[in-house]
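Shipment paperwork, digital attachment
Item: protein structure file
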Amino acid sequence: MSERPRTELYRQERYPREGEPGPEPGDEPEPGNDPFNPGVEPGDDPFNPGVEPGDDPFNPGVEPGPVPGPENNQGFNPQNPIDIQNPPPPPNERVQPGNNPLVAVGLDNLRMQAEQVGDQANNAPTESKLDTFNKYLTVVMGIGALVGIGSNIITFLQYAEARAKGQSGTQPAGLTPEQQAQLDQDITKWINLTDEQTWQKLSLLVKDEQLTYPQQFLLLNFLSRARSSGKSWSWDATSKNDLVQSLAQEFNDYTMYTKVWDYTYQGQHLPFDIGAEIIRLALVQKYLVTGGG
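Attachment content:
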């Protein structure tokens, strides 16, 4: 089977030409050099070329965390105390390429860069990621004060995601019956949040805790799975790119979260997982392409 560049494979899958089939299963490209900066050696830190590979983008000088192990179906890695992997492209999204194919290619490139950011954020030291999700569980979900969370926070995230998907999930160990009842009540409230309420709470979290863009990636990657609506969404590449570029111009990251909800396409608000992808792309455009922030 002939080899095709990764961008071309992704472009065919999301923006197929008329009569042209998408990539076949197992037709994965071989990893190569960085397509965004050919002069950077593989493994260099795209955020700060002077930082040695493996340094923590949240706090340089901190020793790197555990080495990631095999993936599982939930996007968690059981060999990493808190591992949140990049979500796949939203399966419910269909993007029409429009008259200018370069717009679609530009979106493909942004998403590839977003995957790199997600990988680097996920490989940060465990303490940094625990801090990020403790803030989320406390501020947004209201369960951070429960005794027994600590470094076992991944079990709470897995349980919350399973409940959000209508599954029973595995209850976290070490909780009293009263604490388990309170946890279930808080998770139910979280599940019942509307998309508008979720975006508002995320905006306040990013603002009040001054979350960095890698920290935001961790949360968005988790929520893309946990709150995926499965709602079909079809639009054109130009409209999608215009929204990405508009949000990337926001001086404060937290305003992206309310504005992505305010946006409508043909009278409809974006499904949550589509909105999460838009913010990830806007953060890449802001910090890595235009050098904002």
